[in-house]
Amino acid sequence: MKKIHVFTSAAFNYIPKVRMLFESLRRLHPEFVLHLALADRIAPGSDLTAEPFDHVMAVEEMGIPNVQRWIFCHRIVELATAIKPFMLRALLERDDCAGVLYMDPDTVAFSRLDDIVQAVSRHSVVLTPHLTLPELTLEGVMDNEISCLKHGIYNLGFAGVKADEQGRAFASWWCERIYRFCRDDIKNGLFTDQRWIDLVPAFFDNVGILRSPRHNVATWNLRRRLLEGSVTEGLRVNGEPLGFYHFTGFDSGAHKAMADKNAQGNAAVAGLVQWYLDATRKLAQDPLARVPWAYNTFSDGTPISPAQRVVYRDRPDLQDTFADPFEVTGYPLWWKKNAPREYPGLFDPTRQAGELERLTQQLSPGCSPEPGRAVVQAAQLAGAKPLQPAGPPASLLRRGWRVFRREGMRGVLRRLS
Description:
By secondary structure, the chain is an alpha/beta fold. The protein contains 16 helices and 14 strands.
């Protein structure tokens, strides 16, 4: 019998919150198969057998091309979102899979999700918008509707995908896009994995939009959804049982601030936020919450800076030269010798922040599955004729990169015409 598979994505330090989500699902839906997509390595000596999920798949087990290069290009939050389509694709290929639900690790289910399961049985892809009703005040428009235009119409704290041809086609397309472009770069129209999903109803057939007010309740839609009751006695949204709530931005304090603003005076919201705060305070004492991220340092334990990740991500010549950028005898030595000369702004305290922002927002092809072809592929995407090799590939790549840095893609195209 085919089953519904549910997964979430997190590094080790978030597993205590994952536990809250999966305990709620285990209680309400014992028939679900629960998976953790781990944006981390399995820490030596870690025992996950008592956790309320059935399977764990670490990022290095997902069949991602050039995985060490690719991981290095992402910070922890980016990586936790970037692995989602690859885990989805793997689950959809299982013989026992009827459909897959993704839920963020900072969500909790409060009543059965049978309407979601039914939606996945009818539609190839099921999405939940951030907002399902127009805001009624200027403040609401500025806080929430304009935020949706920046971050995406649909919230990727949830997605449902049927194990059919269209569902698998969606997963493959999403993998291709996220491989290169999972970035928090709103100025270039990117917000991790989420903005891409705005294209899904245009690109794929049989997409369902779940507008029920009881699902994916969060601070951004509390102005138009009335939450009543309590955790102990049951919570209702616009008269319906609360399906699942999204405690986004909780650790930073943003969730409480926006809940106070968008649901001012609502005792049910205040009680729910306090309940989660109390629970997560206890979880913070869990040893798993203190496991350091495996990809935070080079092989000798030296921390990796955001600038080192961005420069490597945007330099196909570096990707080609340093297949394992974590290895301390490779990329870090290049950085120490060459980066101060090539990127002086990153080493000037008065210019550092602005220079990093400039580099971060410079749209590039990102990590290439075939680093040695990255400049050629970028040129071809821009409409150039195929490049005919004029010498050793490495030297050709270096020349192409120098032209790209000095003159941009127009300079590359001019030399290819």
